């Protein structure tokens, strides 16, 4: 009897300990969590079908370049890790969008056939979209060095971070990447300032011999949901661009974005440049579907440079207005993007016949799919 | 006749044992059930999610518990996880957040952050704490391949199912629960540990041998 009672008490004690095992006292440690994160992988893949109503590709903005073709964009993979105060990002991309359409070719040389006769020029890409290291000196001050996606502009290279699949003229003709060193100081969660020095050329992995680009960005968030960036990138080699990028989530369903930019060539190259402004209203009609418009006005500045072709076939002294209607239909990690675009120029800019443009309008429709992970 | 007495005694013992075992099972179930009810999110009178715990700590004054709780809120975690906000007599408040990822995400990069407030109240020999005001802040990829908060898209956790699959919502809340329980466990440790007094540095003045 005593043994049975004793066994019962032991069993009761065991079960009780198990029931209370959650919440048992942990080993004493006064060390705060370090904020380290595991290595993370993110990225996207995209593909599209586009039809240009002129029956050949006309609109000279970035990506979605193939007419009447099921074509690929890119496979994009980004690695990131944070350890204490330091972190790195390494992003590579493969495919038309992720190579020749957004990255500089690096290695060049003559390609030879088996007999040794030259048959062309080789080009290869490092495939690198972002490669940089961060050091958070304090909670407010961070230093970054490497090859980075540019801080200029509203639109970006990654299809996962754009609402529209085709791009604006301001995006196509602005910088894509800048290699350099920058410091960012966060005065508060609502205000921060970045300043940095960058290689002389845009979109190159190495400089042409100079570090003569200066860039700065002022970020303000006046109210919750409203972000604004005032940007400048100026250098003797590449010219000067001022840029305003802002977006405001006005209601739960309605968001309005604005991008305005002005670029001027460096003086030693002559006169020329571009300016533009674009509005991006978007309405979420459901949790899965958002409808948006992009209305852009883009002007190629008058130029004294002989043979200056302008920007994206928009000749110096002429302008274009582009209206793009886009939907984002989300299903899990997949976004389906139907889009229609109509561009109208102040001068004939499209449908070249005999080397001369014959049309003042261009239009295209496309269907893209973007899978983000 | 002698055989009947042991048999009757045996039957009595068996009867008693049944009662004891049954009582033991009931006690264990009650403890387990009580623990399960307290160890999950519940809905308060304002229809907000709250995680609430009461802890007895005998032989602890209000003042000592207050000091330890403030020390905990200021020192226990990185500010992103828990940051001291303010305190008054008997009450300590802090804010924090936890990064969460969707189950469908390939490599578990952050998809959102769930922010929360933590309140600790102390009195003689006991204290209580609760987490509430849970808000989901969605993250999105930026041009530098970082995932950053999307401004203006915050959603109260109570409405979290409106934009997430059940699988992802359950994943978010599971991570949130693990996080608040971790904070609670660390709090219990700090509350049992006296805070070392800050040593005042005595300013030393050297008496010069010459030039006086």
What's the arrangement of secondary structure elements?
The complex is a heterodimer of chains A (373) and B (212).
Chain A: H1 2-19, E1 37-52, E2 69-83, E3 86-94, E4 105-112, E5 118-125, E6 128-136, E7 141-149, H2 169-173, E8 177-188, E9 191-198, E10 213-220, E11 226-235, E12 239-249, E13 254-264, E14 273-284, E15 289-300, E16 319-331, E17 334-345, E18 350-353, E19 356-359, E20 361-372
Antiparallel strand pairs in A: 1-2, 1-20, 2-3, 3-6, 4-5, 6-7, 7-8, 8-9, 9-10, 10-11, 11-12, 12-13, 13-14, 14-15, 15-16, 16-17, 17-20, 18-19
Chain B: H1 4-38, E1 42-43, E2 49-56, H2 62-75, E3 83-88, E4 91-100, E5 112-123, E6 126-141, E7 147-149, E8 155-156, H3 166-191
Antiparallel strand pairs in B: 1-2, 2-6, 3-4, 4-5, 5-6, 6-7, 6-8
Helix pairs in contact in B: 2-3
Structure explained in plain terms:
The termini of chain A are far apart. Chain A has one domain (47-72, 135-372): Beta Barrel (Porin). Chain A is mostly beta strands. Chain A has helices spanning 2-19, 169-173; strands spanning 37-52, 69-83, 86-94, 105-112, 118-125, 128-136, 141-149, 177-188, 191-198, 213-220, 226-235, 239-249, 254-264, 273-284, 289-300, 319-331, 334-345, 350-353, 356-359, 361-372. In chain A, strands 1-2-3-6-7-8-9-10-11-12-13-14-15-16-17-20 form a 16-stranded antiparallel barrel. In chain A, strands 4-5 form a two-stranded antiparallel ribbon. Chain B has 212 residues and is an alpha+beta fold. Chain B has two domains: 1-36; 39-191, Alpha-D-Glucose-1,6-Bisphosphate, Chain A, domain 4 (2-Layer Sandwich). In chain B, 35% of the residues lie in helices and 28% in strands. Chain B has three helices and eight strands, in the order H-E-E-H-E-E-E-E-E-E-H. In chain B, strands 1, 2, 3, 4, 5, 6, 7 and 8 form an eight-stranded antiparallel beta sheet that branches. Chain B starts with a helix and ends in a 21-residue tail after the last helix. The model of chain B is unreliable at 29-37 (pLDDT under 50). Chains A and B meet through helix 1, strand 1 and strand 6 of A and helix 1 and helix 3 of B.
């Amino acid at each position: 009897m005593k043994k049975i009672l004793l066994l019962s008490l032991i069993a009761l004690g065991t079960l009780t300990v198990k029931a209370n095992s959650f919440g048992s006292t942990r080993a004493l440690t006064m060390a705060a969590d370090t904020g380290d994160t595991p290595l993370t992988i993110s990225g996207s893949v995209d593909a599209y079908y586009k039809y240009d109503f002129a029956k050949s590709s006309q609109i000279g903005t970035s990506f979605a370049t193939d007419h009447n073709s099921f074509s690929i964009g890119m496979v994009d993979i980004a690695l990131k890790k944070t350890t204490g105060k330091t972190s790195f990002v390494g992003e590579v991309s493969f495919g038309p969008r992720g190579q020749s359409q957004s990255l500089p070719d690096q290695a060049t040389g003559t390609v030879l056939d088996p007999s040794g006769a030259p048959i062309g020029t080789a080009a290869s890409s490092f495939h690198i979209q972002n490669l940089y290291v961060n050091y958070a000196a304090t909670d407010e001050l961070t230093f970054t060095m490497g090859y980075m996606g540019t801080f200029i502009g509203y639109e970006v290279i990654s299809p996962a971070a754009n609402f529209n699949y085709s791009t604006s003229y301001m995006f196509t003709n602005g910088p894509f990447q800048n290699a350099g060193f920058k410091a960012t100081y966060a005065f508060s969660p609502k205000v921060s300032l970045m300043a940095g020095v960058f290689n002389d050329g845009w979109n190159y992995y190495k400089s042409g011999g100079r570090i003569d680009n200066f860039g700065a960005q002022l970020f303000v968030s006046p109210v919750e949901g409203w972000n604004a960036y005032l940007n400048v990138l100026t250098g003797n080699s590449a010219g000067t661009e001022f840029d305003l990028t802002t977006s405001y989530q006005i209601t739960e369903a309605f968001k309005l974005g604005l991008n305005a930019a002005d670029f001027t060539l460096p003086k030693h190259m002559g006169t020329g440049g571009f300016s533009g402004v674009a509005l991006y209203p978007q309405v979420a009609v459901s949790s899965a579907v958002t409808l948006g418009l992009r209305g852009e006005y883009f002007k190629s500045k008058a130029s004294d440079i002989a043979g200056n072709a302008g920007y994206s076939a928009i000749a110096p002294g002429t302008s274009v207005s582009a209206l793009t209607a886009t939907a984002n239909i989300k299903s899990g990690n997949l976004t389906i993007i139907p889009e229609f675009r109509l561009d109208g120029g102040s001068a004939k800019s499209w449908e070249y016949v005999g080397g001369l443009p014959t049309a003042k309008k261009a239009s295209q429709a496309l269907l893209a799919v973007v899978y983000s992970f | 006749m002698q055989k009947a007495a042991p048999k009757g005694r045996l039957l009595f013992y068996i009867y008693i044992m049944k009662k004891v075992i049954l009582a033991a099972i009931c006690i264990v179930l009650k403890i387990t059930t009580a623990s399960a009810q307290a160890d999950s999110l519940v809905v308060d009178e304002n229809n907000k999610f709250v995680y609430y715990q009461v802890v007895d700590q005998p032989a602890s004054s209000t003042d000592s518990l207050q000091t330890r709780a403030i020390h905990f809120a200021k020192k226990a975690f990185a500010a992103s996880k828990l940051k001291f906000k303010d305190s008054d007599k008997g009450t300590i408040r802090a804010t924090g957040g936890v990064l969460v990822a969707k189950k469908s995400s390939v490599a578990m990069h952050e998809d959102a952050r769930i922010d929360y407030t933590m309140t600790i109240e102390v009195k003689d020999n006991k204290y209580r704490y609760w987490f509430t005001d849970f808000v989901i802040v969605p993250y999105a990829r930026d041009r530098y391949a970082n995932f950053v908060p999307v401004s203006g898209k915050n959603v109260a956790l109570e409405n979290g199912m409106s934009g997430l699959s059940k699988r992802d919502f359950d994943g978010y809340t599971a991570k949130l629960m693990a996080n608040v329980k971790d904070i609670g466990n660390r709090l219990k440790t700090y509350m049992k540990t006296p805070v070392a007094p800050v040593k005042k540095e005595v300013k030393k003045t050297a008496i010069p041998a010459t030039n006086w």
